Amino acid sequence: MKSIITQQILDNAISYEEYKNLVMNLISKNDCTGDNKSESNIYFTKLNAERAKRIEKTTAIDEDFKKEVEKINYPLVFFVIAESWCGDVAQNLPVINRIAELNPNIKLRIILRDENENIMNEFLTNGTRSIPVCVLLDGETFEVQGKWGPRPGTAMSLMREYKNNPDVSHAEANKNIQLWYAKDHTKNIQSEFLEMISKINRKKQPLTS
Fold this sequence. Notes:
This protein has nine helices and four strands, in the order ααααβαβαββααα. It has helices spanning 7-12, 16-28, 39-58, 63-70, 87-101, 117-120, 153-163, 170-184, 187-204; strands at residues 76-82, 106-112, 133-138, 144-148.
């Protein structure tokens, strides 16, 4: 599928290190990314920075997954839409970065949702601007090879259950999702990325008879 992503958009996007530096600079100014500069979003930006550090240190990539990622011999872009205040970004972006680091053919580029409404609108989830979204792009044609987000499938199902339960508040639902992440140890996101990358590898590297 052809995407609206161009080389110029990728050039204007930022790396993971640049994203982290941006977030830390905003924290030092008691600020956050996005249009909503509420106290809540500023607080969660600080909390998420600590979450991301912990996940960077504790994430262990499955060996079978690592072998599949190492097979990639073509340019692939992980194009991520994020914001600093989003708990799902904090939980998943460090893992996506770890995956990208496994192979020099993978480039991770990040944009902010509220600064790029036209791009966000191309990658909605059930009509919503949920983040993070990671779009896997062919590094030469920029065609979409896969799309992931805003959270692993099991967590998506849990959140739907919470939203349909009037006895569960928004704050409680978010807390429960964070607890689920802690118990999952990134297993679900790794499994889902393994499935996507395996599919792309089969397409890019068809078996010869």
